[in-house]
Amino acid sequence: MTTFAARLRRATMVEHREAETRGFITRLMAGGVPRAGFAALTAQYLFIYAELEAAADRMRADKTAAPFADPALTRVPALEADLAHLYGPGWASTITPLPATQRYVRRLHEHCRASAPHFIAHHYVRYLGDLSGGLLVGRSVATTYGLGPDGVRFYAFDGVEHPKAYKAAYRARLDALPLPDEQLDTVVAEAQLAFRLNAAVFEELGTAYPATTLPSPV
Predict the structure, then answer these.
(1) What does pTM read for this prediction?
(2) Cα separation, 123 vs 119, whole angstroms
(3) What's the pLDDT tens digit per position in 157-184?
(4) Is residue 98 within 8 Å of residue 34, measured between CB atoms?
(5) Which residue, 4, 63, 153, 198, has most beta carbons within 10 Å?
(6) Which of 114, 113, 117, 115 is nearest to 180 (CA)?
(7) CA nearest neighbour of 12 among 147, 156, 191
(8) What is the CA radius of gyration of the chain?
(9) What is the rounded CA–CA span in Å between residue 68 and residue 136?
(10) Which runs of consecutive H residues, i.e. helices, occur in the chain?
(11) How far is CA 116 from CA 49, 61, 105, in A?
């Protein structure tokens, strides 16, 4: 029997691949995005995670969603520290959400504060991805921009000692979801949408920060 975690992964493969192969991300990994573009990506993440983690605070009272809303995954403090490093002490008045980010945040606000299926879908897309490819992205951009831990704290999960085991336990929670079929279908559909929303942010960043050649880090 196919598990729900396997079904979810398979159902989002196309959207996932399209999101992670957007020009902005491939250029970021290859060193073809200026530092300002990386800083802008970090800023967009703050808007997204601030709303998702506000939803997590509420959903800890929901018995279905609560097992996913693990405080060890919280990213907002790390993002704020990264932005202070990348922009300086006045960072909060410097950053603005892109239109795609605004749409993403609006979707989170409207659906993830009261609906366990919607919350779990967006949580899955963001945090399981962060614990997988996100760790690779963190190492790559640290090298590209000559950063130490400052500036890339978002990619370091100090509260997760063994990411591989954590991801396995996360998938087991997905498999054990006590939801009827129609609500499992909602999780799948919303996860597909989450990847598309994420891809739209990358697309706008790619337009704002076209291809460039970076100097080698000192």
Answers:
(1) 0.93
(2) 6
(3) 989 999 999 999 999 999 999 999 999 9
(4) no
(5) 198
(6) 117
(7) 191
(8) 17
(9) 23
(10) 4-11, 13-20, 23-30, 35-59, 76-87, 99-111, 116-123, 129-130, 133-144, 163-175, 181-208
(11) 17, 10, 17
